[in-house]
Amino acid sequence: MNKEMLLSLMDKVVKVDRGGPESRIGKLLAAGDDYFTVITEEDGVVYYKTQHIKSLTIDTKSGLKFNMEMPEKLEYLQDADFVSVIGNLYHHWIKVNRGGPEMIEGILDEITKDYVTIISNGEVIRLSMYHIRNISAGSKAKESNEEKGNSKQTKNSYRRK
Question: Does residue 157 register a pLDDT over 80?
C-alpha cells in the first residue's frame, strides 16, 4: 500500500483486510509514509502499519456498514511515519494488534526503531516493531467516558526514539 493510493481513499469507508481478527471497517482519516489512520465503531482511532495490510476494500454497490456519527472535533495523531506516531503515545495506555493471541494492552514505556516496551499486568513486554500491525490509544471504557464528557485525555507530544 503506497501513500498515493491511500490518499485517494481519504474520507471513504474501507474494510481493512478481508477477514480475521485484525479486519475492521472504518473511515480512512490520514495516511503517512508507512501507516494509515482509520476510525472504527469498535475501537475508535486505529493506526495501521501498511506492511501488514493485505487488502483495502470499498463496496461501490451497497457500501460498507459504518453507522458511526463522526465527532465534531475528532483528534488523532498525524506524523510522517509509524514510529513518529507511536512516539506521541509515550506513557499512554495503548492496545496493540486488535485481535488474536498477539493482542497486548498496557502502558507504552519505551520506543526505539526496533522495539517498544509495554508494561502490562506486572509484566514488562518488549515487542518487535516489525510485528506491530496496528495500535490505538486508550481503552474502550475510557473512550466511552470521554464521549460522555466525564474525563479528558491530554495529548503527550513527548517523543522518544
Answer: no
User: Count of CB atoms within 10 A of residue 63's CB?
Assistant: 10
In whole angstroms, what is the distance from residue 12 CA to residue 29 CA?
8
Does the pTM surpass 0.85? The reply is no
Closest CA to 159 of 73, 101, 86: 86
Rounded to whole angstroms, the Cα distance separating 59 from 78 reads 26
CB 81 within 8 A of CB 37: no
Q: What is the DSSP string of 93-121?
A: EEEESSSSTT-EEEEEEEE-SSEEEEEET
pLDDT tens per residue across span 4-47: 999 999 999 999 998 888 889 999 999 999 999 999 998 999 99
User: Under a CB-based contact definition with an 8 Å cutoff, are residues 96 and 48 in contact?
Assistant: no
Query: In the predicted model, is pLDDT for residue 145 greater than 60?
Result: no
Nearest-angstrom CA–CA distance, 140 and 51: 26
Phi, psi for 27 (deg, rounded to 5): -95, 130
